[in-house]
Design a protein that fits this description.
Largest sheet: 3 strands, antiparallel
Shape: globular
Oligomer: single chain
Helix content: 25-40%
Order of helices and strands: HHHEEE
Number of helices: 3
Distance between the termini: 41 Å
Number of strands: 3
Length: about 80
């Protein structure tokens, strides 16, 4: 039996100051397209992968309990005000 290797993202990330700058752009700025802002927030705050975002459907949103189901995650992700 072989053990699986680590799963998940293993690449490099951008510096914290750049993450803060992008967060401000997406939440308070006026020059970002809404699609850019949504995808950026999902990736930055919720570690959503490109495939999780690509297969996202309206049914995956839970407006009453403010959650979003991303990919095959075992539990819905709570949506914060920025999301």
């Amino acid at each position: 039996m072989k053990a699986k290797g680590p799963s998940g993202f293993s690449g490099t990330t951008i510096a914290v100051d750049q993450q803060r700058r992008l967060f401000r752009r997406w939440t308070t700025g006026t020059d970002a397209h809404p699609h850019e802002a949504l995808l950026g927030i999902l990736a930055l705050l919720h570690a959503a992968s490109s495939s999780e975002v690509r297969f996202l459907r309206v049914d995956d949103l839970g407006p009453i309990n403010r959650t979003i189901r991303l990919g095959r995650r075992p539990h819905p992700v709570p949506m914060d005000p920025a999301s």
